[in-house]
């Protein structure tokens, strides 16, 4: 079993591989994340996305990964009635809302293509796991308490599916204090989505979170997605199939 | 979303800030290179950081039912009641809803079926991995950097 965590794309990325494998495999996975960051970071002037945004590169001449990511972004926008938008107010494109889940999915495929069945990749709390853990059990994923990072409020077994959580920053005071309400109690502060893979989970978690309370209903209408939304009052609403993943 | 933000993002939880070790900043906690979905309603104005008293005192609240002040909740007044038992919040009931629901109706003008709800509760089960909103605000990264410096 090998496990490592590195800070890439502005977040901790953890990879665990249960099976015996080449010592270089984990390095290759992190190299892939680094290359993805180099291509898609809007904060790196030398990145391909920066060249596109400057007009120095035409869309038609963009790389295959860039074309794929932009296509996924356009598809997600149309699937979510415009709630998913990578074009910023200044007109430039920032596709990193797609890139995160896409990169985790591709990293998982890289691991599988090396013959590994039992692993997980966790990038900033969005997760693709495959197979079983070192104890031979289905991977168990906790849903973090948005009000206490040391706690989980749910445990699920995604059984090969992807898990992603979108959340908001609750302002610097406790939301239960009615005299100092920083936000509406009905605001959704955390939305966890289980999807076919981590790319599906991540793009729909991002879009459905932007829908506010309607987001969980959006997920309910899509049979391949399940969700668990927590509002600022600490009340969770779940899709009707979410409990099929819940474990104790 | 205000245009003054460095990134047009509504993302991302800095839940780690609620551990109490770091005082919560007023700026939005955006993932450093993450883009955003479109936010339908403007965010409430940021408020000054205040001690996270209730969270810090979880388990030490006095039992009872407490009715909150009526508060302007962006599109109308809202009032809640919190019930405490065994020192913990067991329910938060909304006693008064904003009368003007246009903001919600704009977000979703379809009739919504009831979905099952529950008050969240900490689970003691051991898990392999934790899913949460990306813990990357500027403050988070600063803290992480300093930790890594010590570790290095």
Number of helices of chain B: 3
| Cα shape of chain B | globular
Based on DSSP secondary structure assignment, what is the total number of beta strands of chain A?
Answer: 11
The CATH superfamily of the largest domain in chain A appears as: ApbE-like domains
Strand content of chain B: 15-25%
In which range does the helix fraction of chain A lie?
Answer: 25-40%
Please report the two chains with the greatest interface, counting residues with C-beta closer than 8 angstroms to the partner's C-beta.
A-B, 97 and 85 residues
Descriptive notes:
- The complex is a heterodimer of chains A (248) and B (152).
- Chain A has six helices and eleven strands.
- By secondary structure, chain A is of the alpha+beta class.
- Chain A folds into two domains: 1-133, ApbE-like domains (T-fold), CATH 3.10.520; 140-248, Roll (T-fold), CATH 3.10.520.10.
- Chain A starts with a strand and ends with a strand.
- The model of chain B is unreliable at 1-59, 97-110 and 135-139 (pLDDT under 50).
- In chain B, strands 1, 2, 3 and 4 form a four-stranded antiparallel β-sheet that branches.
- Chain B has helices at 53-56, 102-107, 138-151; strands spanning 64-67, 71-72, 77-85, 88-96, 117-119, 129-131.
- With 152 residues, chain B is an alpha+beta fold.
- Classes of the chains: A alpha+beta (248), B alpha+beta (152).
- Chains A and B meet through β2, α4, β4, β5 and β6 of A and α1, β3, β4, β5 and β6 of B.
Q: What is this entry, summarized?
A:
Helices cover 31% and strands 26% of the residues of chain A. Chain A has 248 residues and is α+β, with helices and mostly antiparallel strands. In chain A, helix 3 crosses helix 4.
């Amino acid at each position: 079993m090998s496990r490592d965590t590195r800070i890439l794309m502005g977040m901790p990325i953890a990879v665990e591989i249960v099976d015996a494998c080449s010592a270089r495999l984990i390095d290759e996975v992190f190299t892939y994340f680094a290359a993805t960051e180099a291509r898609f970071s809007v904060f790196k002037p030398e990145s391909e996305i920066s060249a596109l945004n400057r007009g120095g590169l035409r869309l038609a001449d963009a790389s295959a990964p860039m074309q794929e990511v932009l296509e996924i972004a356009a598809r997600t926008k149309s699937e979510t009635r415009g709630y998913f938008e990578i074009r910023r107010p200044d007109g430039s494109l920032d596709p990193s809302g797609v890139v995160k889940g896409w990169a985790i999915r591709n990293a998982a495929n890289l691991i599988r293509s090396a013959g590994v069945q039992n692993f997980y990749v966790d990038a900033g709390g969005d997760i693709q796991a495959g197979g079983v853990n070192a104890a031979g059990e289905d991977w168990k994923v906790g849903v973090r308490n948005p009000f206490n990072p040391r706690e989980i409020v749910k445990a699920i077994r995604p059984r090969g599916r992807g898990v992603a959580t979108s959340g908001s920053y609750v302002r610097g005071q406790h939301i239960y204090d009615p005299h100092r309400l920083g936000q509406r109690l009905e605001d959704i502060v955390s939305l966890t989505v289980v999807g076919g893979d981590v790319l599906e989970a991540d793009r729909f978690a991002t879009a459905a979170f932007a829908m506010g309370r309607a987001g969980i209903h959006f997920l309910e209408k899509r049979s391949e997605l399940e969700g668990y939304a927590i509002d600022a009052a600490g009340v969770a609403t779940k899709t009707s199939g979410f409990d099929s993943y819940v474990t104790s | 979303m205000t245009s003054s933000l460095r990134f047009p993002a509504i993302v991302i939880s800095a839940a780690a800030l609620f551990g109490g070790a770091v005082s919560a900043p007023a700026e939005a906690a955006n993932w450093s290179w993450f883009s955003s979905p479109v936010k339908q309603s403007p965010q409430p104005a940021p408020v000054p950081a205040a001690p996270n008293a209730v969270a810090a005192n979880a388990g030490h609240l006095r039992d009872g039912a407490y009715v909150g002040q009526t508060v302007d909740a962006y599109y109308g007044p809202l009032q809640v009641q919190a019930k405490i038992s065994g020192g913990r919040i067991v329910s938060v009931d909304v006693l008064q809803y904003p009368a003007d629901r246009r903001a919600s109706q704009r977000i979703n003008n379809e009739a919504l079926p009831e979905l099952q709800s529950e008050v969240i509760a900490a689970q003691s089960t051991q898990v392999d991995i934790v899913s949460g909103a990306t813990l990357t605000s500027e403050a988070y990264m600063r803290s992480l950097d300093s930790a890594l410096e010590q570790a290095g």
